[in-house]
């Protein structure tokens, strides 16, 4: 190398923050399923919770009409449209009994998954700890790590109704814990919250100066009594809540979520968020406001469909000889596998390769889910009936070998 010349830049080197962050499990699995489909397998995918039903027709109509206007295509406010913030405030008041100031306590998001990242980046310094549920949504773990934080698992056990053992946590060193991720109705277990649980979480956050981050996207699915952590007295001082239109309004691909909390928390997260995006397309926000104004008949119509599907999933789980609770909320069924399988991965792969049906192994949600599987309710009754037929056929063939 000549004197004074620079060393070549190493192309493709990734940042240290990506160490230990693998590709999202479903991203990998969908590629495998795509390859199997190219081989003519016609895989029935019962793994991912992506609603297969459309939003209400009036919601789509608003999007169409507003998109045709010439003055709606500019950048939007980082805090979201006042129309959408007001709609979220009315929604929270009507269904959760929570009064929020639309100007200061509500921050629309381009999806609540993004909000998980915003919160972690706003509050976690290198080495700070965050409590994450095991089993739980994998994004909590990856967002904490990407922000430089350290994940501290708290195990959720079936015998404790998948509630955190706060007494056990009290005995651990919490001095570096800044955040606690909680999620009820819980995913993947479908466990509903109780008022007492929410009160205990708020008290725990106050005592240990931990921000309780409640992720609440499933409260309208197969559940007649939606609950918000912010309904607990004093919650706003120690908690924030994420919510979403993905599941409750069949708008997953629209990417509309919200962060609710005290003005101070909203302002803090906005400092990060405003450097990450430039607001949401205004017609999408106005259509989302329409979706939030829908009455009980909307939720009843959606849940009627999910109940029919769930009855078919019960049949499928019975064929697989899994055990499960009939009191689950949300758009999944969580079930314990028979002792004849090493773990949920083994059962999932067997069903995939023998019967061309994909179900999710519980272990992707944490080690506490290793002996479980999860089945999505996002599919037609006919799709579930075909899955049952295939699995029965696959079992019969394996027994005859």
UniProtKB/TrEMBL annotation:
A GO MF label? pyridoxal phosphate binding
**Major enzyme class:** transferase
**Keyword Cell membrane listed:** no
For this protein, the record's Pfam families field holds:
Aminotran_1_2
Domain Aminotransferase class I/classII large span(s) in chain numbering: 42-391
The UniProt entry, under InterPro entries, shows:
Aminotransferase_I/II_large (IPR004839), LL-DAP_aminotransferase (IPR050881), NHTrfase_class1_PyrdxlP-BS (IPR004838), PyrdxlP-dep_Trfase (IPR015424), PyrdxlP-dep_Trfase_major (IPR015421), PyrdxlP-dep_Trfase_small (IPR015422)
Enzyme nomenclature, EC number = 2.6.1.-
Q: Supply the alphabetized keyword list.
A: Aminotransferase, Transferase
Q: Which domain of life is it from?
A: Bacteria
- What cofactors are annotated for this protein? pyridoxal 5'-phosphate
The protein's matches in SUPFAM superfamilies, at most eight in alphabetical order, are given as: PLP-dependent transferases
Q: Which family does it belong to?
A: Belongs to the class-I pyridoxal-phosphate-dependent aminotransferase family.
This chain's protein is named Aminotransferase
Please name the source species: Ilyomonas limi
């Amino acid at each position: 190398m000549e004197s004074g010349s620079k060393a070549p830049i190493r192309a493709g080197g990734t940042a240290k923050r990506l160490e230990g962050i693998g590709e999202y499990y479903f991203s990998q699995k969908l590629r495998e399923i795509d390859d199997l489909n190219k081989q003519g397998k016609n895989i029935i995918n019962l793994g991912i919770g992506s609603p297969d039903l459309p939003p209400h027709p009036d919601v789509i109509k608003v999007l169409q009409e507003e998109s045709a206007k010439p003055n709606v295509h500019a950048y939007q406010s980082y805090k979201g449209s006042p129309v959408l913030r007001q709609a979220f405030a009315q929604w929270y008041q009507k269904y959760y009994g929570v009064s929020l100031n639309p100007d200061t306590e509500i921050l629309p998001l381009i999806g609540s998954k993004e909000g998980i990242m915003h919160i972690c980046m706003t509050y976690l310094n290198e080495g700070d700890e965050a409590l994450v549920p095991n089993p739980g949504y994998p994004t909590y773990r990856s967002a904490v790590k990407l922000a430089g934080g350290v994940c501290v698992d708290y195990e959720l056990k079936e015998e404790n109704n998948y509630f955190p053992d706060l007494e056990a946590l009290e005995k651990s060193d919490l001095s570096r814990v800044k955040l606690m991720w909680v999620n009820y109705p819980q995913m993947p277990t479908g466990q509903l919250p109780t008022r007492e649980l929410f009160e205990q979480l708020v008290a725990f956050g106050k005592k240990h100066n931990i921000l309780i981050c409640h992720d609440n996207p499933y409260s309208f699915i197969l559940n007649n009594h939606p609950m918000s952590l912010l309904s607990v007295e004093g919650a706003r001082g120690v908690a924030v809540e994420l919510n979403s239109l993905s599941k409750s309004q069949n708008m997953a691909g629209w990417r509309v979520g919200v962060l609710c909390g005290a003005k101070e928390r909203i302002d803090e997260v906005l400092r990060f968020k405003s450097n990450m995006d430039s607001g949401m397309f205004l017609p999408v926000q106005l259509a989302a406001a329409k979706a939030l104004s829908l009455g009980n008949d909307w939720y009843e119509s959606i849940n009627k469909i999910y109940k029919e599907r769930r009855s078919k999933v019960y049949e499928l789980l019975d064929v697989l000889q899994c055990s499960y609770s009939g009191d689950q909320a949300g758009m999944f069924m969580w079930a314990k596998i028979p002792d004849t399988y090493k773990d949920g991965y083994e059962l999932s792969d067997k069903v995939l390769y023998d019967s061309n049906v994909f179900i999710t192994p519980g272990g992707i949600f944490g080690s506490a889910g290793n002996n479980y599987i999860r089945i999505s309710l996002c599919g037609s009754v006919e799709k579930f009936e075909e899955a049952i037929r295939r699995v029965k056929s696959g079992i019969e063939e394996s027994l005859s070998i």
